[in-house]
Amino acid sequence: MRCLPGIECVAALCAVVAIAGCAAIQPPKPWEKGDLARPSMRFDTDPLKVRLTQHIYQSKEGAGGGGTVGGGGCGCN
Fold first, then answer.
1. Do 71 and 77 form a contact (C-beta atoms < 8 A)?
2. What are phi and psi of 63, to 5 degrees?
3. Which of 47, 62, 71, 72 would bridge with 77, disulfide CB 3.0–4.6 Å?
4. Structural domain spans, the chain
5. pLDDT, tens digit, 9 for 90 and up, residues 18-66
6. Contact 58, 64 (CB under 8 A)
7. Which contiguous run of DSSP H or E holds residue 51?
8. H/E stretch holding 34
9. Higher-pLDDT residue of 6, 67
10. d(Cα 63, Cα 11) in Å, to the nearest integer?
11. Contacts of residue 36, Cβ cutoff 8 Å, sequence gap at least 6
12. Contacts of 44 (CB under 8 A, 6+ apart)
């Protein structure tokens, strides 16, 4: 089946409008950043536990950083 030229134009117009709508998103204002800094917005609820886990990982690996990378440290991921 072949689409009508009018349908293709409408689909292209909808795509352009959707992309243009995404370009209009502004970063949060300074007074809105307080809501984003609440403790309930954190991924890790216990910062002490995260630091302890990172310390243990760094002690075992012998290197700093990369706490989310898989592998055993031997290079055979």
1. yes
2. -145, 155
3. 71
4. 30-63
5. 887 777 678 878 888 887 788 777 788 788 998 898 888 878 776 655 5
6. yes
7. helix 47-61
8. helix 33-36
9. 6
10. 52
11. 28
12. 50
Count of positions (residues) in the chain: 77
Residue holding tokens 């370009």? 23
Q: DSSP letter at 41?
A: G
Residue whose tokens read 């992309």 = 19
Tokens in use for 66?
A: 């990369």
Q: Which residue has the tokens 């795509």?
A: 15
> Which amino acid makes up residue 11?
A
Tokens of 24: 């209009």
Residue matched to tokens 């709508």: 21
**Do residues 44 and 50 make contact, with C-beta atoms less than 8 angstroms apart?**
yes
**Tokens at 74, concatenated:** 């031997």
